[in-house]
Design a protein that fits this description.
Shape: elongated
Radius of gyration: 36 Å
Number of strands: 0
Strand content: under 5%
Distance between the termini: 53 Å
Number of helices: 7
Largest sheet: none
Length: 196
């Protein structure tokens, strides 16, 4: 603990004192630190010599016969509606209409974009991985053999294998997102009841 931490804690623990008296006490302890630093001591050593701020504060308060009251947090019971009750049919219809417009404006375009990206990525991965087969079929039908085509085909297989991990991760993410949206809709309409 350094000087600032010590003084902050001591200040906090002496809040029951008169502000003027508290400032005077803190000024005295700042003087202790100044004298200690001039004597070549470190702040940590001075704190060790002075003692713990909570013990110092307790001694000061007991000398002045000020009882440190334990302040307990006030807890209030607030009755809440039972969350296991389902919403009424009219509320479900209104929430369903609101969700429909939200879906049309925001959710459906985003999810359609994500699923289109997933499908196109899988098609690309499939085409890259099948490029050697397509190269072989092309040779069977009488195309001229070119070395660069073979190397391009091998490179596409490598790229396809790398994209395979990306496609798999994107598919998992999109599936989880879709299921989360469906569960959220169900929860919102049913109100978190037993049927949600």
């Amino acid at each position: 603990m350094n000087k600032q931490d010590f003084l902050n804690e001591l200040n906090q623990r002496l809040e029951l004192l008169d502000p003027k008296e508290r400032r005077e006490l803190l000024s005295d302890y700042q003087e202790h630190f100044r004298n200690g630093v001039e004597a070549g001591k470190s702040e940590e050593q001075i704190v060790f010599d002075l003692g713990k701020p909570e013990e110092i504060a307790a001694d000061i308060l007991s000398e002045r016969e000020i009882r440190e009251e334990q302040l307990e947090a006030d807890y209030y019971y607030v009755p809440r509606k039972n969350q296991n009750e389902n919403r009424s049919v009219s509320k479900q219809v209104l929430i369903g209409i609101g969700l429909f417009f939200l879906d049309i404006c925001l959710v459906v375009p985003i999810m359609a974009t994500l699923w289109s990206l997933v499908i196109s990525l899988w098609v690309t991965v499939g085409a890259f991985l099948l490029s050697p087969v397509l190269f072989g079929v092309e040779l069977l039908f009488g195309a001229d053999f070119e070395f660069y085509q073979m190397f391009v085909s091998i490179g596409l297989v490598g790229l396809g294998l790398m994209l395979l991990f990306v496609a798999n991760a994107l598919t998992k993410f999109t599936s989880k997102t879709t299921m989360g949206i469906i569960q959220w809709h169900k929860y919102a309409v049913k109100g978190g009841g037993k049927n949600a």
